[in-house]
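tool_call predict_complex ligand=2-acetamido-2-deoxy-beta-D-glucopyranose
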Amino acid sequence: MKVLLVFLMLAAGAFASCDKDPEGTNEKLYVASCKPGDPLVVNSISITNDDGSTDYPVNVDATLNLLLNVTNTAKQAYPDLTIDAGIDRYTDIFGICSWIGIPTFGLTSGLNACDFGDTNICPLKVGITVVKDVIDLSQFKAIINILSASEPYRLTLTFKSGGQEISCYTVEARIVKG
Ligand SMILES: *[C@@H]1O[C@H](CO)[C@@H](O)[C@H](O)[C@H]1NC(C)=O
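tool_result ok
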């Protein structure tokens, strides 16, 4: 039975190939909550070039101009904020599109999410906070080096305060390099 299944997958792979456009990422960034109901809500994320135009596909070799708009819907401010990030690539496995994790070398857990360049958003107040800053990805060079511009990527971002999850989002995007 197992052998037959593998054969069928191989046969399917020979004829089909997966359509690599999950959630319309050929056109634009896709952002979705993975835990609706969590207290920290992301209202919008945008990434632009220096001239203000939309940076898409996202150039991972350049600094990112990030505009982030969040709402803390809890009753109190969060004194601290960290992000754990997982990265998946969208790839073709015998004609079936699948998200497959890539190694992050421990570089993407417990990231300080209070400091965005010149802006410190902690304690994160109740209500809306807008962050506008330039993100330097060079600290993630070891990961960026293994990414290929031919596939869409998905970041799973888990925000924590005091070790407790307060938000989870997935961000899907195509990238370019150089
Ligand atoms: C942030 O998002 C909220 C909710 O969508 C919106 O009302 C507000 O105008 C936004 N603020 C900025 C500065 O973009």
